[in-house]
């Protein structure tokens, strides 16, 4: 049994997540209170209202994307199975394949 709990990435990640959430809420409050009251009749926000507004906007518009969602996607033709399959084609089949994709892409 592992008794060292801080070997897990969550020991470092979770406090940063909480600190980041509170920091972004403060930024939302400052930006709202700097911009919105001067251009409209809306009143300034409190810190907790800014936190609620940030949370609501992330739920409605952005979602919460963490690092696993931001991996770079490889192009479909860069997949090893596709490369192997394409390399097994003879010249006539390769030319036919290329022409099919040109007709699909260049409509």
Structural account:
The chain has 107 residues and is mainly alpha-helical. It has two domains: 62 residues; 28 residues. Helices cover 64% and strands 0% of the residues. It contains four helices and no strands. Helix 1 crosses helix 2. It is elongated and about 70 Å long. The mean pLDDT is 79.
Compact overview of the structure:
This protein has helices at 10-39, 47-62, 80-87, 91-105.
How are the secondary structure elements laid out?
Layout: H1 10-39, H2 47-62, H3 80-87, H4 91-105
Helix pairs in contact: 1-2
Tell me how many strands there are.
0
Number of helices: 4
Shape verdict = elongated
Which ranges are low-confidence, i.e. pLDDT below 50, for 5 or more consecutive residues?
none
Give a short account of the largest sheet: none
Radius of gyration over alpha carbons? 25 Å
What is the arithmetic mean of pLDDT? 79
Distance between the termini: 61 Å
Q: Structural class given helices, strands, pairing?
A: mainly alpha
Task: Please estimate the helix content.
Answer: 55-70%
Task: Return the string of H and E elements.
Answer: HHHH
Annotation keywords:
single chain; 107 residues; mainly alpha; 2 domains; 4 helices; elongated
């Amino acid at each position: 049994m592992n008794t060292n709990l801080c070997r897990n990435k969550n020991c470092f990640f979770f406090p940063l997540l909480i600190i980041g959430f509170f920091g972004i809420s403060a930024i939302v409050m400052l930006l709202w209170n700097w911009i919105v009251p001067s251009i409209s009749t809306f009143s300034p926000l409190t810190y907790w209202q800014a936190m609620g507004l940030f949370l609501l906007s992330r739920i409605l518009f952005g979602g919460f994307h963490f690092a696993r969602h931001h991996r770079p996607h490889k192009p479909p033709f860069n997949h090893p199975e596709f490369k192997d399959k394409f390399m097994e084609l003879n010249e006539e089949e390769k030319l036919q394949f290329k022409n099919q994709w040109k007709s699909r892409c260049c409509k």
